[in-house]
Amino acid sequence: MRLDFVKIFVDSTAVLFRELIGPAVEVPSISMKPSPVASREVMGIIGLAGEAHGRVIFDMDLFTAVQLAGHMLGEPSPGITPLVRSSIAELASMAIGNAISKINDG
Prior knowledge:
2 strands; alpha+beta; globular; two-stranded antiparallel sheet
């Protein structure tokens, strides 16, 4: 994936997180790797085809995933439930959709 596309994905995801959670969201670093590397407990991988081909990985610890899903659902979650998994998958889909729209518009 081209680095300029990666920047669009990072920027649009940061904007989405700020809209959902608030201005305290920061993106400390980004990285490109030739293959997915599982480094935390919760991971969402979305494959892309076309001009922006590659994989986008949302990788977070369990606490972050549960808290984020709870915020999206408007109620705390007791742990990693099917609804939490679905919420994280939806968050990833929203972020990818926003980024692809920006790429197509640009």
